[in-house]
């Protein structure tokens, strides 16, 4: 009996101790939880106070950036970072570079780079005429291709782009007329044929070639497009060597070709949507067969 009583007391004592420990742990945990909650409230109040002091900047994007985000931009977006560095560099150049005097001809780095070729063509007029003739043939190839894809294949995008491009070139070339370089090497075989006056800004030679090349790439005529790109580079070198264009004319010509090709594509797409919405036939363009990549390849309809 006493043994049973002792065992019962011992068990009761053990249970009481365990219960006390559990109660203590719970109390300790609740105190710890209260402390954490108080700390979180203090942090929230501190952040809220900072946001109030920041005012309208509290919701700005840069306020949420961390060091990891900043280094992530450098790691995952190197090209914009290079552009940002070049911006700072050319800002320094712009503020320190001495302007070309109004009595001097324009400075063109492309002219400097092609000085040797210029002297060669200047000393050999026959070679200059041959190269001018070959360049005119290339211009003819561009025109034939652009008209061909419209009239034969029923794809008007390149033609629309060329019309946009030459119209804009005429406007810009007229409103800002650049002086022809003093050492320009003209030729009767050059385009415009007959060595007549022409607009310098921007290069229609380069832009039209870009439009044709982009159209070739769309229909996967890769070899022909690479040929046109190569001839376009050679054409640009010749135009710099003869001083028929400034470097900026050629650079903008590349951009103009890409821009007007894109605009022509958007125009074509919008017109298709409008015609479909209005339930109209749309003529030859709308009834044309479609290439597997979405471009028109024929004006006939089945």
UniProtKB/TrEMBL annotation:
AtPDCT1/2 transmembrane domain residues are 107-266
Which InterPro entries did the record assign?
Answer: AtPDCT1_2_TM_dom, PDCT1/2-like
Could you list this entry's UniProt keywords, alphabetically sorted. Answer: Membrane, Transmembrane, Transmembrane helix
**Residues that span the membrane, as ranges:** 73-93, 130-151, 158-176, 196-214
Q: Give the highest taxon in the source lineage.
A: Eukaryota
Q: Name one GO molecular function term.
A: diacylglycerol cholinephosphotransferase activity
Any one Pfam family match given in the protein's UniProt record, by short name? AtPDCT1_2
- Please give the name of this protein: Phosphatidylcholine:diacylglycerol cholinephosphotransferase 1
Q: Which organism is it from?
A: Capsicum baccatum
């Amino acid at each position: 009996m006493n043994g049973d009583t002792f065992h019962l007391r011992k068990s009761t004592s053990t249970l009481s101790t365990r219960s006390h420990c559990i109660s203590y742990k719970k109390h300790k945990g609740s105190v710890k939880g209260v402390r954490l909650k108080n700390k979180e409230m203090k942090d929230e109040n501190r952040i809220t106070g900072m946001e109030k002091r920041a005012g309208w900047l509290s919701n700005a994007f840069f306020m949420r950036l961390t060091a990891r985000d900043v280094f992530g931009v450098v790691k995952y977006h190197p090209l914009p970072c290079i552009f940002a560095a070049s911006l700072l560099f050319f800002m320094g150049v712009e503020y320190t570079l001495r302007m070309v005097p109004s009595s001097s001809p324009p400075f063109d780095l492309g002219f400097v780079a092609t000085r040797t070729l210029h002297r060669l063509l200047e000393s050999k007029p026959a070679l200059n005429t041959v190269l001018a003739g070959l360049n005119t043939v290339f211009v003819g190839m561009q025109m034939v291709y652009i008209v061909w894809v419209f009239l034969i294949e029923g794809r008007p995008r390149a033609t629309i782009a060329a019309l946009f491009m030459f119209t804009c070139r005429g406007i810009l070339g007229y409103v800002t007329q650049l002086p022809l370089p003093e050492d320009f090497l003209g030729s009767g075989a050059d385009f415009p044929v007959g060595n007549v006056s022409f607009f310098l800004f921007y290069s229609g030679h380069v832009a039209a070639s870009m439009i044709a090349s982009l159209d070739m790439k769309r229909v996967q005529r890769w070899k022909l497009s690479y040929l046109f790109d190569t001839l376009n580079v050679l054409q640009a070198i010749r135009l710099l060597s003869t001083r028929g264009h400034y470097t900026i004319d050629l650079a903008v010509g590349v951009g103009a070709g890409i821009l007007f090709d894109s605009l022509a594509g958007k125009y074509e797409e919008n017109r298709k949507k409008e015609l479909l919405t209005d339930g109209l036939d749309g003529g030859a363009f709308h009834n044309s067969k479609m290439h597997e990549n979405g471009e028109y390849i024929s004006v006939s309809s089945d």
